[in-house]
Design goal:
- The complex is a heterodimer of chains A (105) and B (171).
- In chain A, 74% of the residues lie in helices and 0% in strands.
- Chain A is mainly alpha-helical.
- Chain B is an all-alpha fold and 171 residues long.
- Chain B folds into two domains: 86 residues, Four Helix Bundle (Hemerythrin (Met), subunit A), CATH 1.20.120.1200; 41 residues.
- Classes of the chains: A mainly alpha (105), B mainly alpha (171).
- Chains A and B meet through helix 1, helix 2 and helix 3 of A and helix 1, helix 2, helix 3, helix 4 and helix 5 of B.
Chain lengths: 105, 171
Amino acid sequence: MIEGISIQVILTFTTVLFFIGLYGFLTRTHLIGILISLELMLNSEAINFVAVNKYLHPQFLQGAVFSLFILALAAAETALALAIILQVYRRTGSVDVKEVKELKY
Amino acid sequence: MEQILFYILAGTTLVAALLTVNTTKIYRAVVYLLIALLGIAGIYFQMNYDFMGAVQLSVYAGGVMVLLVYVIMLTEKVGEPIRRIAPFRRVIAGITVLLLMGLALFAIWKFDFQTLGDGSPVTVEQVGKAMLSYDRNGFVLPFEVISVLLLAVMIGAIVIAKSKIQKNTDQ
């Protein structure tokens, strides 16, 4: 925990970060832009896990360990998504969701 | 001192995040995301969880950033502005997000948290022992599941990125 900072302040910070990411997720049409917004959302969750663990249940390690798992999942998801984006670009010549219509049917 | 540092880090992160979702150049979005991730790593260091901060720096600021820049170089024409949805829809999205954020913040500030933390650091030793122990507070099962997942992702990413292009029927 941080000296002089209550858990509400940290949760407020992560909530604002999460909803900034959500805004980007909703407004972008570029596939990599969407992925970047997703990274922001995942990061805010990971901070939440660590903060709740450190402030409310310091005798356990659940949040600390699961934030590491979230990080591993985020890295895995990024690698896979970028491979798919690369393949989409090779097929359609664009990485804009409006140009990628093949998955619709 | 700690307080001032936290507010500086949090402010930098939020400003960088806002710029990330608002810029129209994808390279700039990646650089702003890097700044936001560095700020988040600083907050982990402040919370006395050094290992997570180090992992954040190496995995995100190192690995994911390189991947993102590499794929953007392969797919994007440099300097071309990227498209977003129409301004009117952007305003609607912003209002929706602000409403949801208000709801979440209301819930957070309404709830009575019982803070117990003593500020003791989480050491690498503790985390390592917890991840490999199979008793009551051990995490060996999720650890193994994550390793299988990483293997599957590695194979999947290679297979997807390498697969041959089949000619489109309508081209």
